[in-house]
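Every protein is a chain of amino acids, and every chain bends into a shape of its own. The fold becomes a row of whole numbers, each drawn from a learned catalogue of backbone shapes. The protein below has been through that process, and both of its lines are reproduced in full.
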Amino acid sequence: MELRSKGLGKKSVTMCLGEAEVTDTGKAMVVSGKMGAPVYWEYTITMTEQDLVDILGIVSKKGTASFFLGCENKGRVVKAAIGDGSKLVFGVATGIFRKSDRRSAASDVTGDMSATTE
């Protein structure tokens, strides 16, 4: 990914998101890594739920489809979308079930008897 900043003049900075680390703080997703030439800076991007919704919205825009159709290696992009997309869906589904299991276990521990009848 190429980033430009007025502070760099006409230069740009490169960032490889594929090498980034992602951390969940509970309230935000933090993406961090190192930028390449001409400056070697460490970066941190803090994204909220709304930011993630906005990024997913970008994927569905006409310009994204047009860019995709012009890609030389469409198969690579499709493979990444299917592979990473299925990992995301599986991860979300697993997380939902784990939260559900934790809630059930917590109600068992606290003696929640609301579902029982005498």
Notes: The chain has a mean pLDDT of 77. Residues 74-110 form the longest helix (37 residues).
